[in-house]
């Protein structure tokens, strides 16, 4: 049993922040949260004094390739199965490498959960998974399968059209490819149900089984889309197929369509925004987007798209969004509770409350301020990082 005491505890719940608060941890879960004088600490508990520092939930990045893209070894990355533009049969869990250095950078920077996913080369990329960033076996790091990756815009056009000379080579081709796959999934569901009703044998298909979960609403569709016209096309197709379990990833021009997001109750996972316009669809990139979407009433999460941006700089992205108009009092929510709710893992992470995973970070200042440091990081109650104990002078690691 462990007790983190004397902290400025940010619950990210309606009860708000507790000054002089205690978080009690037992068997990897939070058992109690409250003021120091109201939480009873057993005599045998390991007590850690937060010294008044900020205690937050572990940060959650709702769009990452950490564990998939292999930090420093991109040739070994397993995040794009590019044999076909439609690959719903693949699963991120099978390519997740617990020893990817990006994951160590993640938890040392306070990021304890990521949605690790396929890349954006394919129109349909495969099943993606919410994963803890600390651990040694992927299956034990898995929180849940949280969606089906899809991609619009320049990436699938470039890879399949320009490089492979096959559909899709245009935006209409991308849209048609997604529509065709969803139509086939609907037909597959109907044939499967008819076979079950008649007691007939039925030949299963792994990709169609996964897409069936999308059209039936059991698995969210998570669509990479930067430009406003691509986002509008995603909404159009979702309307056609009755897909309500949906998120827009990147949402670079999401601020243009804020009311459309609100009307459909679709969340936006915004970023990575520390970027130049390396391609045409990024020309309107701005850190004002999260604030505009939040003000309109959209549920917003901020992402790094690691390793596009280093995973440990998720807090920096939040700080820049605050500078450009995101209210400081909702900043923490964009990388804790909001992404957890978007991913459907809010029963495990994203807040500090009883019966959730004991993933906590002790910061020596507000999380989103540039000079704040993650001093201590706990994952499921285990202290996995101590900045004084674990920081290494980079001059001592230089390899000639």
Automatic annotation (TrEMBL):
<feature type="region of interest" description="Disordered">
    <location>
        <begin position="153"/>
        <end position="173"/>
    </location>
</feature>
<dbReference type="InterPro" id="IPR051781">
    <property type="entry name" value="Metallo-dep_Hydrolase"/>
</dbReference>
<feature type="compositionally biased region" description="Basic and acidic residues">
    <location>
        <begin position="155"/>
        <end position="168"/>
    </location>
</feature>
<dbReference type="InterPro" id="IPR006680">
    <property type="entry name" value="Amidohydro-rel"/>
</dbReference>
<dbReference type="InterPro" id="IPR011059">
    <property type="entry name" value="Metal-dep_hydrolase_composite"/>
</dbReference>
<dbReference type="Pfam" id="PF01979">
    <property type="entry name" value="Amidohydro_1"/>
</dbReference>
<dbReference type="InterPro" id="IPR032466">
    <property type="entry name" value="Metal_Hydrolase"/>
</dbReference>
<feature type="domain" description="Amidohydrolase-related">
    <location>
        <begin position="55"/>
        <end position="383"/>
    </location>
</feature>
<protein>
    <submittedName>
        <fullName>Amidohydrolase</fullName>
    </submittedName>
</protein>
């Amino acid at each position: 049993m462990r007790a983190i005491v004397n902290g400025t505890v940010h619950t990210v719940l309606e009860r708000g922040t507790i000054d002089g608060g205690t978080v009690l941890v037992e068997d990897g879960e939070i058992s109690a949260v409250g003021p120091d004088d109201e939480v009873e600490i057993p005599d045998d508990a390991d007590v850690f004094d937060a010294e008044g520092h900020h205690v937050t939930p572990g940060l959650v990045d709702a769009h990452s390739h950490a564990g998939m893209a292999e930090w420093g070894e991109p040739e070994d990355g397993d995040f794009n199965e590019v044999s076909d533009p439609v690959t719903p049969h693949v699963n991120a869990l099978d390519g997740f490498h617990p020893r990817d250095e990006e994951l160590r950078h993640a938890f040392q920077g306070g990021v304890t959960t990521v949605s690790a996913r396929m890349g954006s080369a394919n129109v349909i990329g495969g099943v993606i998974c919410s994963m803890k960033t600390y651990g040694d076996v992927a299956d034990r790091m898995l929180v849940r399968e949280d969606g089906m990756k899809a991609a619009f815009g320049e990436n699938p056009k470039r890879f399949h059209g320009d490089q492979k000379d096959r559909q899709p080579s245009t935006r209409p081709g991308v849209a048609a490819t997604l529509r065709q796959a969803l139509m086939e999934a609907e037909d597959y569901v109907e044939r499967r149900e008819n076979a079950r009703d008649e007691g007939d044998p039925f030949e299963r298909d792994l990709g169609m089984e996964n897409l069936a979960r999308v059209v039936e609403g059991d698995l969210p569709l998570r669509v990479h889309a930067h430009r406003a016209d691509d986002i509008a096309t995603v909404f159009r197709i979702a309307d056609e197929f009755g897909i309500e379990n949906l998120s827009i990833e990147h949402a670079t021009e999401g601020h243009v369509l804020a009311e459309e997001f609100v009307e459909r109750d679709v969340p936006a996972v915004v970023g990575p925004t520390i970027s130049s316009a390396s391609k045409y669809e990024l020309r309107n990139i701005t850190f004002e987007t999260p604030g505009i979407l939040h003000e309109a009433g959209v549920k917003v999460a901020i992402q790094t798209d690691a390793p596009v941006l280093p995973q440990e700089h998720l807090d920096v992205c939040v700080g820049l969004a605050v500078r450009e108009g995101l209210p400081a009092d909702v900043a923490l929510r964009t990388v804790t509770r909001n992404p957890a709710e978007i991913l459907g893992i809010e029963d495990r992470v994203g807040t500090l409350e009883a019966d959730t995973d004991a993933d906590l970070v002790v910061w020596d200042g507000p999380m989103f301020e540039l000079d704040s440091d993650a001093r201590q990081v706990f994952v499921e109650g285990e202290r996995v990082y101590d900045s004084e104990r674990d920081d290494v002078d980079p001059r001592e690691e230089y390899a000639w």
